[in-house]
Every structure is written in C-alpha cells, then in structure tokens.
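tool_call predict_complex ligand=iron/sulfur cluster
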Amino acid sequence: MNIIQHVANLLIRSVFHADPASWPWTWLVQAVVIGIAAFLAFAFVAIFAGPVSWIERRIAGRIQSRIGPNRVGPQGVLQWLADGVKCWLKEDLVPAAADRPLFLAAPYLVFTGMFGAFVVLPFGAQVVAADLNVGILYLLAITSLVVVGLLMAGWGSNSKWALFGGVRSAAQLVSYEVPSAFSLLCVVLLAGTLSTQGIVAAQGGWPWDWFIFRNPFMFAAFFLYFTAAIAEGNRTPFDLPEAESEIVAGYNIEYSGMRFLFFLFAEWANIWIMAAISAFAFLGGWQIPGIAPEQIAATKGWEFVGWQALSWTIFLVKATFLVFVVIQIRWTLPRLRVDQLMITCWKYLVPLSMLMVLGVLVLLALVPEGGGADTILRGAMVGLGLAVVLVSALRVRRTFRVDREHYREMEGRDLWYPPYRLP
Amino acid sequence: MVPAVPPPVRPNPVRAYFGNIRRAVSSTFEGMTVTMSWLFRRPSTIQYPDRTEKPVREMLPETYRGLLEVDLSRCTACLLCAKTCPLGCISIETCKHPDGAREFQTFDIDNGLCMFCGLCAEACNFDALAHTREFEASVSSAEQLTVRFVDRPGRLVAKAKDLPPRRPRGSILAALIPGFGRRRRRAAPPEPPASPAPAPAAGAEGPENPEGTA
Ligand code: SF4
Ligand code: SF4
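tool_result ok
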C-alpha cells in the first residue's frame, strides 16, 4: 500500500469514522490527498529550483574568482525571489509571426515532462507519490515529453535560432535516451524490478550494498548514466540547444517573462531529477545504514515519521551532492561541438553502456550474490571509490598549494578563502 | 616522375578510441580538481561601491581627472579655461561694479558635455580650476549635470596679486552638492587576524588545507 492510500485510509478512519473499504466517498478523499501530494511536489520543485539557481551562481562566481549575487537579502539568498518577481512583471511577448498555440503551450509541456518525473521519485521509505511497477520505464517516457515541448518552442517561435535549438535538442535527447536507458537497464537487471522503490529496496544502507559498488560494470554504468543524464538535461558541456555563443539562446530565445522562467524552472528541476535518479538507482537511495526497510515499515506513530524523515534526509543529501557535482561540471568543461556531441553518444556511450549490460549479465550468472567472490568484488569497488575521492582531494590540495605561493608573492595576502567565509 | 608522397600517418583506430576515452576521463578529472580548488581561493572581486576598504575616490591617483571644480576665490575670470575648452562646457559671466570691482554672474561647468581632457585645468594660471578625484556623478536629470559654482551673489573676481591659498581639492564640490557621490557604505567583512606571514616552505604546511572539505 502506498503512502497516499495509507494517509487517505487514516483520514477516513479517524475523521469520518468509516471503513475505507466500504465507504462510498473513499475515492474522493484519495483524490484530495493526491491533489495535496501533487501540490507538495510542486512546491518542492519551486522551492528547490529557486535556491539552487542562487547556489549555482554563487559557486560559479567562486570558480571564476568572483563572488556571485550577494546583495538581495543576507548573502543574496533572496536573489531568486527577486528574479522571479522580475520575470513575473515582465511583458509576456508573443512574436507576431509565431505559431501562437504551440508557442504558448511549449513551456508548460516542458515543465510537465519534468514535473511528471516527481511522481515516482522515492523520497523516503514510504514517501513516494505513486510506486508504479513500471517506474523506470515511466521515468524514461515522461521525461521524453520534454523533447516535444522543446521542438514546439523551437518551431512555434518562427525564429531560425529557436528552430536550430529545438532541432538540436530533439536530436540530442533522442540520442542520449539510448545510453541512459541501457545504464538503467543494468540497475533493473540487478534489482529484478522496474519499480523505483523496489530498486532502492534491492540495495542497502552501506556503501558496499549500493549498486554502484556492486561490480566494475555498475561503477562504469553510473558514470555513463550520469553523463547521458547531463546531456538529456541540456546541461553544459552538452548544452547545445541553448549555446549562447552559436545560436544566441536556442529554443527559448523568443520567450520572455513567466514563460521564459518556466523553461529555466524545468532546467533546474531536471538537475534535481537526474541527481535523484542517480541517487536512488546507484547510490542506495533513502536506505538507512543498518536498518532494513521492513523494520521501518513495521514501526508505528511518531517513530514511523521519524524514520521516514531520516530516510528522506539521506536521500536529499545524496541527491544534493550530485546536484553540486553537476553544477561544478558546468563550470569546468567547455561545450562540445554538435558532431562531437553525436560522436560521444553513438561511438562511445552507446557501445560502452551495452558492454556494461553484457558485463552485468555475465557477472550475474557467474558471481552468486552473497558469495565470497561477490564480497571481494564489492570490497574492491568500495576501495576504488574511496581511492577516487582521496586522489581528487589530494589533487585539489596540490593545485591550491602551488598557486598559494605565487599569490602570496604577488598580493602579499593568503589565498586561502574557504567557501564558508562569505564575502 | 611523380615524387612518392608518404601516406598520411593514421593513428591506430583502436588506440585512438581508447585514448579518447582515457583523455576524456582524465581531463574531466583534472578540470574538476582545478575548479574545486578555486572554491578555496580568495575572489578577486572588489565590491564597489560600498564594501571597499576606503572610498574608491581615495584609492585613485592624485592626478586623476575627475569632476572639475573651481576655487572662485582664486579665479581672475581671465576666461582662458572657457576659451581653451574644445567643447565649450565652461561658461563664465561677470559684471562690473561702479567702483571698478568685478563680480561673478555665472561660472557653470557642464559635466554632461565635458570629456575630462584636462585642457582647461592646464590653462588656468592660478590653480583655480582643477580636477578632483570625484567621479560618482550620476544625477536624476540632465540639467543637474551642470554644476553652478556661483552659489551666492557678491562673489568678487580675485586679483592676481593677492590670492588666498587653494582650498583642498574636492572640498568645494562636496560643499556645493551635499551628498554628491557620498553613498552609504557598509563595513567591509572582517578579515580574520592575519597570521604572521610564514616562510614560503612553511606556508605550504599551513594549518588549513582544502583537503578535509574536498
Ligand atoms: S576637461 Fe576638457 S572638456 Fe572638460 S571643461 Fe576642461 S577643457 Fe572642456
Ligand atoms: S578658472 Fe583659471 S583659467 Fe578659468 S577664468 Fe578662472 S583663473 Fe582663468
């Protein structure tokens, strides 16, 4: 039973003193609860997309030796509100020669495509709007709706730059669906289910129970999925649909005001979605180390709520970490050319992800789960993961130290200025 | 006979393929570590106008050619400056009293026209007209750009023989236009106490390093 039915039944029993199975208005209460859940998810997107835009600009600023927005509210935390109000007050222009219905509807379609994904995201042990048994398929399908929206925006704008952007994004999204689907297929193979909650339940709280550290192929599949997901979200280095230097802003060039904001909104929401998918498919999702999902389901009352909140937090932390990685990638890598984009997908990501599926299949047949070989494999992969983290930390430290000396010679000041010291 | 052209050297496609993967992974990794290290570096932004250590005008060099100001108590109304100005932004009018003394009617400088070339200040023989380091000159209407230095009637034209000392630069402009360019300032964020500058070798072993947060 999912959380919506659970809450609805609880309401019916405690408020209306009726038996939910036989009461004639059960469907109405459920519909209301679903509406509330949708509103909560919507509010989450809105509240998440805003601050993330601010955080991204602050991080981008620091990476470029700037400060970033820090004037609206303490340290600029309200910058996103100011931007929102500004966009809200702007005139909503529709070009005279635009295909009006397409032009007007496109942002909402893009947004719906993104928002629909939230339905199956497993936020916590029982916190999921609908635990569909075809969860992953649904995710892949609903996020493809975005292509339609982008194409509509590109075509409807009646501008060659917008059309370029729309066509590029269609080509890009359709291509990158393939490697991302193959990478998720690895997850499905291991979990034996398409349901998002089932995938999380097949993993565990400790890193060695996560799918990413299950075997080398899963480790690679995670990075393949992550790359493909960045491309699907039109993020740098794959942000060709909105390449400012080539096609000015791509599909959204003719948009202004709130409609423009909806495109950005969808982009921010999409970062979150791809981070969340990576987190629940590869990084163990909401699993709490040392606590089995059944134990959580068996608890009652406030204890239940507490465990839910804890699992929710764990999931948020993992996903937010990945969001930071996405943001940092954006400010690290230059944009690919169109041909390079297609080469990356069809020559590298697609064959490699197929290879990963094969590898996972072979290992599934050869290495029984829980056996000695499995344990060794998992241990080695966790070690590899730790090594990657450690080596990158050391590299960061070395890069920093080299420049620190130069800086002191030139400026007479210390270069050290950690992110928590806000100027 | 056609000279034999050596065939173009083609890299082994298999090696090129895996080389590309290796390069993509390693350059992304290196790039990420570099950008990560920038999160721990001091930003070079100067937060103008309100969070600099002192007002920006005080950081400018003495010879900076900012807004013009004239010290009327030293001006002999020789009109050299007005005639030198290629744009004619200085307008000076005087009138003569019956006892022979001359009085300023106007001494206006149109900052909207002025290109801050400094020719007028150079032409002035009495150090009456000079540039200040004031530059924050935005006003809400174009008329306000003209600074009128004759603030009250009865300002007599100076005699070249007995000139009072030059009033400090900028003080006339500041008195003429209260609040002009004096924006509200916030305190700059406090610097943590500067650790005694260690020797270069010791500096690398500073107590803080980005490792823990990386
Ligand atoms: S600085 Fe140049 S342009 Fe301005 S008033 Fe003097 S001479 Fe004219
Ligand atoms: S400011 Fe100098 S140059 Fe101009 S009229 Fe006065 S004395 Fe002459």
